[in-house]
Amino acid sequence: MSKISINIATGSIEKKKVILGIDLGTTNSLVAYVPENQLNSEIISINQGNLVPSVVYFDENALPIVGASAKAKLIESPERTIFSVKRLLGKNYNDVRDHQDLISYQIIDDNTDSLVKVRVDDRFYNPIELSALILKELKKGAESHFNLEITQAVITVPAYFNESQRQATRDAGKLAGLDVLRIINEPTAASLAYGMQEKKNGKILVYDLGGGTFDVSILTLEDGVFEVLSTHGDTYLGGDDVDRAIAEFWLSGTGIEFNQLNNLQKQSLRLFAENAKIQLSKDVFQTVHVNWNYSGTDHEFQLNYQQLKELAQPIIDKTMKSVHQALSDAQISVNELNEVILVGGSTRFPEIYKTLSEVFKGVHINNQLNPDEVVALGAAVEADILAGNRKDILLLDVTPLSLGIETAGGLMDVLIPRNSKIPSRVGREYTTSVDGQINMKIAVYQGERELVAENRKLGEFILKNIPAMPAGLPKIEIQFALNADGMLKVKAKELRSGVEQDVEIQPSYGLSDQQVEEMLVSGLTHAQSDIELRLNIEAQNEATQMIYTAERFLEKNSEFLTTEEIQGSKQRIETIKGLLDSNNRHEISKAVETLNDFTKPFAERVMDIAIAKALKGNDIANL
Ligand code: ADP
Ligand code: MG
Question: Which top CATH class is 528-615?
Answer without folding.
Answer: mainly alpha
